[in-house]
Amino acid sequence: HHGLQFDLQYEERSNGGIGRFGTVLYMAPREGQKYGLSLMVADKNNKSSTYGQIGAVGMFALSDDVNAEVRAGIGLSTDNDLDWVTAGAGLHWQATENTRFSGHYDITEFDERNFSAVAHEVTFGVNMRISNTPSALFAEVSHDWLSGGNAAGGDTTLRAGVSFALGRSGNDQPSFRVSDPMRQLLRRGLY
């Protein structure tokens, strides 16, 4: 079995919005396993900042209700030649038929002549499907920080919204997380 996941997001921030498009082309060769290639392209309003990322993702069922996810990728900002290497992992727990909890950790290394940092992000979320509709309400809290030469203290953000799932995901497992390591740099005005 093969699948294609699309993510279209827009986040409004005090220093400008970020529009993001992500996709994952994946295979689900057997029950409880899916893996594939991911692609993300984003642009920040009010600033010349377009960037993208390509990577590999995998999800594996640990039990009927718990899935583990891993991801790794490389990215590049087209406006300033900033590049990065990123990796992450997460757990998804299907608590009830319509309620899913998740936790993720992502780490990214930026290593340029003028900017050197390791970005960390820890995210916890809940996704609640509205009855038998393709709609769901979600809320996420993230804590991120930078270590290294251009270190920055921790910052916590809350995201909430509505999502729509058209079709079903492979093996009825959760959708893949499409990470965005540049989000915290742009929010902090660092690059």
Describe it for me?
The chain is mainly beta. Helix content is 4%, strand content 65%. The chain is built from one helix and ten strands. Strand 5 (66-77) and strand 6 (83-94) form a beta hairpin. The N and C termini lie far apart (41 Å). The model has no long low-confidence stretch (mean pLDDT 90).
Element layout with pairings:
Layout: E1 2-11, E2 18-30, E3 33-44, E4 49-61, E5 66-77, E6 83-94, E7 99-111, E8 116-129, E9 135-147, E10 152-164, H1 182-188
Antiparallel strand pairs: 1-2, 2-3, 3-4, 4-5, 5-6, 6-7, 7-8, 8-9, 9-10
Query: How many distinct helices?
Result: 1
- Structural class of the helices, strands and pairings? mainly beta
N to C succession of SSEs: EEEEEEEEEEH
| Overall residue-averaged pLDDT value | 90
How far apart are the termini? 41 Å
Percent of residues in helices: under 10%
Cα shape: globular
SS elements, strand count: 10
The order of strands across the largest sheet is: 1-2-3-4-5-6-7-8-9-10
Oligomeric form: single chain
Radius of gyration: 17 Å
List keywords for this structure.
191 residues, mainly beta, 1 helix
Summary, kept brief:
The protein has one helix at residues 182-188, and strands at residues 2-11, 18-30, 33-44, 49-61, 66-77, 83-94, 99-111, 116-129, 135-147, 152-164.
